[in-house]
Recover the amino acids of this structure.
C-alpha cells in the first residue's frame, strides 16, 4: 500500500510538470518551429537522463531496445499532434482536450488488456467526463484545427499509455524511458530538415522554457510515469494525469493571461475529486 502511494506521488509531481508543458510550448513557439522544439526538447531530455541514469540503463536488452523504438515512435506522433495543436489553439484548451485520454484509457485497457473496470469506475468516469465537459465548454471555445489535433493527440496518448503499461511489466522502465527520448529526438531531427530551415533561437525566454521542458517536463516526467506504470494500473495513471489541465489552467492564467470561468472551476473540482477517489481506492 505504501509503495502504491509512493508511485501515486511520482505521477502527481510528473503531472504538475506536464501541466507546464503547454504554456512553455506556447512560449517556445513564439521563437521557433514545431519540429525544432521537439528536437531540442528531447535532445536535452535524452542527454540529461543518460548522464544521471546510465547505471540504471545499461546493459540494455535487445527487446528493450526494440520496445523503446516502438514507444519512441508513438511518443513522437503524440508530440507532433500536441505541439502543432498548441500552436493553433490556447494552452488551456489543448490541455483540456488532451486530458480526454482519461476517458479513453479504461475502455481501451478493457479491450487490449481484458482489464474490465469495476462498476464504481464507470460512476467516477461519468463524474470525470462531466468535469471535462464543464472545463472545455466555455463560451469562447472554438473548434479549430488545433483542437482537432489535440483530440488526435489524446487518442495517440491513450495507445501510448496502454502500450507502456504492457511493455514495462517485464522490462527495465528506466532504459525504456531514456531510450525513447533518443528515438523521439532522432525522428524529429530527420523529419525537420525537409520541412523547416534550421535556426538556433537566441532568445533567453526560449532557452529557459526549453530547459524546463527538456529536464523537468520530459526527462523527469516521462521516466517517473514509465516507472509508476510498472506498479500502477493504466486507469489510476489516467486519472492522475487528468489533473494536468487543472495545473495547465493555473499556469496559463499566470503566464499567458488565460483564465478559467466559474463553470470551468466546477469542472476542475469534479476532476480533482475523481482523481483523489480513484487513487485512494486503488
Amino acid at each position: 500500500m505504501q509503495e502504491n502511494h509512493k508511485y501515486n506521488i511520482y505521477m502527481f509531481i510528473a503531472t504538475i510538470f506536464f501541466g507546464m508543458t503547454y504554456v512553455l510550448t506556447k512560449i517556445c513557439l513564439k521563437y521557433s518551429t514545431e519540429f525544432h522544439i521537439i528536437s531540442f526538447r528531447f535532445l536535452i531530455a535524452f542527454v540529461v537522463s543518460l548522464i544521471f541514469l546510465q547505471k540504471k540503463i545499461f546493459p540494455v536488452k535487445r527487446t528493450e531496445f526494440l520496445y523503446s523504438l516502438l514507444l519512441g515512435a508513438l511518443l513522437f506522433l503524440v508530440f507532433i499532434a500536441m505541439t502543432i495543436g498548441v500552436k493553433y489553439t490556447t494552452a488551456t484548451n489543448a490541455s483540456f482536450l488532451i486530458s480526454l485520454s482519461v476517458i479513453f484509457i479504461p475502455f481501451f485497457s478493457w479491450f487490449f488488456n481484458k482489464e474490465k473496470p469495476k462498476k464504481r469506475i464507470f460512476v467516477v468516469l461519468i463524474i470525470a467526463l462531466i468535469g471535462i465537459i464543464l472545463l472545455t465548454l466555455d463560451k469562447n471555445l472554438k473548434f479549430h484545427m488545433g483542437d482537432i489535433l489535440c483530440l488526435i493527440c489524446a487518442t495517440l496518448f491513450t495507445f501510448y499509455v496502454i502500450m507502456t503499461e504492457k511493455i514495462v511489466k517485464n522490462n527495465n522502465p528506466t532504459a525504456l524511458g531514456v531510450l525513447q527520448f533518443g528515438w523521439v529526438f532522432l525522428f524529429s531531427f530527420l523529419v525537420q530538415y525537409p520541412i523547416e530551415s534550421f535556426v538556433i533561437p537566441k532568445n533567453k525566454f526560449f532557452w529557459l522554457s526549453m530547459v524546463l521542458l527538456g529536464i523537468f517536463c520530459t526527462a523527469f516526467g516521462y521516466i517517473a510515469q514509465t516507472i509508476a506504470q510498472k506498479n500502477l494500473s493504466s486507469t489510476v495513471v489516467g486519472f492522475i494525469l487528468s489533473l494536468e489541465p487543472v495545473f495547465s489552467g493555473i499556469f496559463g492564467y499566470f503566464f499567458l493571461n488565460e483564465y478559467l470561468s466559474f463553470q470551468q472551476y466546477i469542472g476542475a473540482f469534479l476532476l480533482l475529486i475523481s482523481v483523489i477517489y480513484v487513487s485512494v481506492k486503488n
Q: What stands out?
A: The chain is about 80% helix and 0% strand.
